[in-house]
Write a structure and sequence with these properties.
25 strands, alpha+beta, 7-stranded antiparallel beta sheet
Length: 608
């Protein structure tokens, strides 16, 4: 949920605030730092950039963040396309962070409006807008709210009790539910390295703070950590509230439900035009915008809801031209197109009345074919669900298996987990971290590991385009009483590409995710698995818009560890993995079946 920029040095804003407020001689904007009072008397640090020579009244663009605004660059650098058009930019430290007063609460719960003077991020947004309208001159009475990651989440909070002047929202990479998906869990499986790093970074102090690891390769550190109970015993000592929440709420209980945007926006009509922005390779918050678009679409009576998905990592649409990510090339300035055409057009229409307001329901950049697509529904109704079936000898095809027996197996050893990216695995936001592009890494780095199963098609004779939801349907067993199931849908490039040799045989993740076996029936009530019993697991791989080109192959990989981005499942069922003992971690044999009766497959939405 951390924004895309690297963690800046912690010689922080207190020494530089006054200097930072000096006007930049080449900027068209005047810079002001103010403390805006909230309804309970707490004041929030707010940075305002006002165009110097605007003849016409201008709208506000408000962003609220926990990551510190005092050193924010002038709009010409941070939002050049929007800055050229002209807006009043407002950046604010949320309550309890950096120079703002009050107490910080991670993903602050929504207030009870019956309680006098109760506050939440929605009321803080409302009060900020109200103050801006009354105290900043030459405004046109309209406000847009936008932000990335945590700023995307605070943008969603503005919708809870929207100020009448709020006319447009662009939430970008918001988390929606920290147990179902996004930052901290994926389908109930805990995101260890990210959850540990992020909780410490945000809650060890009022400013971002890196945990002092004593090794560079975090794979080694987390393996030496042992069971998760050692985190509090050896390091956090119950001083990090979010970690204690992880420990105390191992299942999808009322705590997670109350925090979830599903609960906060249930049966709430959409009254403000809302744009959702996501990246196919977002390593932190891909699911949130998809979930919130889908939820609000059901409640949208006036065509106010739309979604944009591009070939970006977390926040990648806000920087550079977006022609590439990692080793992947897109043959187009995807990020620049988003900023110049899609984002600017959105705010120009809703805040300035420019343009025709005809926004596509969904705009996606289709990877593989490298084309922008516009759809009148999302997922598109033009796609037909088809199954990619697992067969003997590592074969994958659209033909259903007919065999009466057959499975592939491997030994899953928690003491030797499969790394989720090539080592060394640097600290998430530490020096030299490759966290930002790991979802584009060549998956051949696990080739040959006996605990990773692979199936692939023959070389494709025609393009195959999938657009929409992707779900893995596994029939599997384990010799133990719990297991994780990680499934990766992969585009395998031609064995020899004379024009780009380094991409020869490349194995590119199209989409991938994990399901913790204990939650196969319910996230609320975990259940042990009966050893050696064949069980059906549905692993939600979210969505894709991708063309597997002629000459490529389609591959599926299945494994049971993805370390340390996902914590190790002990594989022995315990009530709470956060309190498991070292002796609970056991080896197990896992089998994936591929028979007519138990046909493991990946369901894809194919566009003919």
């Amino acid at each position: 949920m951390k924004p895309f920029f690297p963690l800046f040095l912690l010689l922080i804003v207190f020494c530089t605030t006054l200097q930072a407020q000096e006007p930049a001689p080449d900027s068209r904007y005047e810079r002001k730092m103010v403390m805006i009072p909230m309804r309970d008397g707490i004041k929030l640090n707010t940075l305002i950039f006002i165009p110097k020579n605007s003849k016409d009244p201008l709208p506000f663009l408000l962003s609220r963040t926990p990551y510190g605004v005092a050193e924010s660059p002038y709009p010409e650098r941070s939002n050049p396309e929007l800055a050229k058009e002209g807006f009043i930019f407002v950046d604010q430290d949320i309550r309890g962070r950096y120079l703002s007063e009050g107490k910080f609460e991670m993903l602050r719960m929504t207030r009870d409006p019956k309680l006098p003077n109760s506050i939440d991020e929605s009321t803080d947004t409302y009060d900020t807008i109200d103050w801006l309208l009354k105290n900043i001159g030459n405004n046109n009475g309209k406000v847009g709210v936008f932000g990335i990651s945590y700023g995307g989440w605070t943008s969603m909070m503005a919708l809870i009790d929207p100020h009448p002047a709020l006319k447009a929202i662009s939430e970008q990479a918001t988390p929606a539910d920290w147990f179902i998906n996004d930052d901290m869990h994926h389908n109930g499986a805990f995101r260890l390295s990210y959850g540990f790093d992020y909780a410490f970074m945000e809650e060890a102090g009022k400013i971002d703070t890196l945990f002092p690891f004593d090794t560079y390769d975090n794979y080694d550190w987390y393996l030496r950590l042992g069971p998760l109970s050692n985190v509090n015993d050896k390091y956090f000592k119950h001083t990090i509230p979010s970690w204690d929440n992880f420990v105390n709420h191992p299942n999808y209980d009322d705590f997670w439900k109350k925090q979830s945007l599903f609960t906060r926006f249930a049966n709430r009509p959409l009254t403000v035009p809302t744009q959702h922005v996501a990246g196919w390779f977002d390593q932190e918050d891909f699911a949130g915008p998809l979930f919130m678009y889908e939820l609000l679409e059901k409640q949208d009576k006036n065509n106010l809801n739309c979604i944009v998905i591009g070939p970006w990592n977390h926040g990648g649409w806000s920087r550079s031209e977006g022609r590439s990510l990692g080793n992947l090339q897109f043959d187009a300035p995807t990020s620049k197109t988003f900023r110049e055409e899609i984002q600017l057009g959105w705010f120009n229409y809703h805040l300035k009345g420019k343009g025709d307001g005809k926004f596509a329901e969904a705009i996606t950049f289709q990877t593989g074919s490298n084309q922008w697509k516009r759809y009148d529904s999302w997922p598109t109704k033009q796609a037909i669900q088809q199954a990619l079936y697992f067969h003997a000898d590592g074969k994958l095809s659209f033909d259903q298996p007919k065999a009466s027996t057959g499975f592939d197996s491997f030994i899953s050893d928690p003491a030797n987990p499969v790394p989720y990216r090539t080592r060394p695995i640097e600290q998430t936001y530490g020096p030299g971290s490759r966290w930002f592009t790991w979802m584009t890494e060549d998956q051949r780095f696990v080739d040959g590991r006996p605990d990773v199963l692979s199936w692939e098609t023959d070389v494709l004779e025609n393009d195959v385009t999938i657009t929409g939801k992707v779900i893995a349907d596994l029939f599997a067993s384990t010799s133990a009483s719990d297991a994780d199931w990680i499934v990766k849908l992969i585009d395998v490039y031609p064995a020899l590409d004379a024009k780009n040799l380094k991409m020869s045989g490349y194995q590119q993740i199209v989409t991938a995710d994990v399901l913790r076996g204990r939650f196969r029936k319910s996230f609320e009530t975990p259940l042990p698995v009966k050893p050696n019993e064949v069980v059906e697991y549905n692993v939600d791989l979210l969505q894709s818009d991708h063309t597997f080109q002629k000459g490529h192959k389609i591959m599926v990989q299945v494994q049971s560890t993805w370390f340390p981005v996902i914590d190790r499942n002990p594989q022995k069922f315990v009530p709470n993995i956060f309190t498991a003992k070292a002796s609970d971690y056991v080896k197990a044999e896992h089998r994936v079946y591929r028979t007519g009766a138990n046909a493991s497959k990946v369901m894809v939405s194919v566009v003919k």
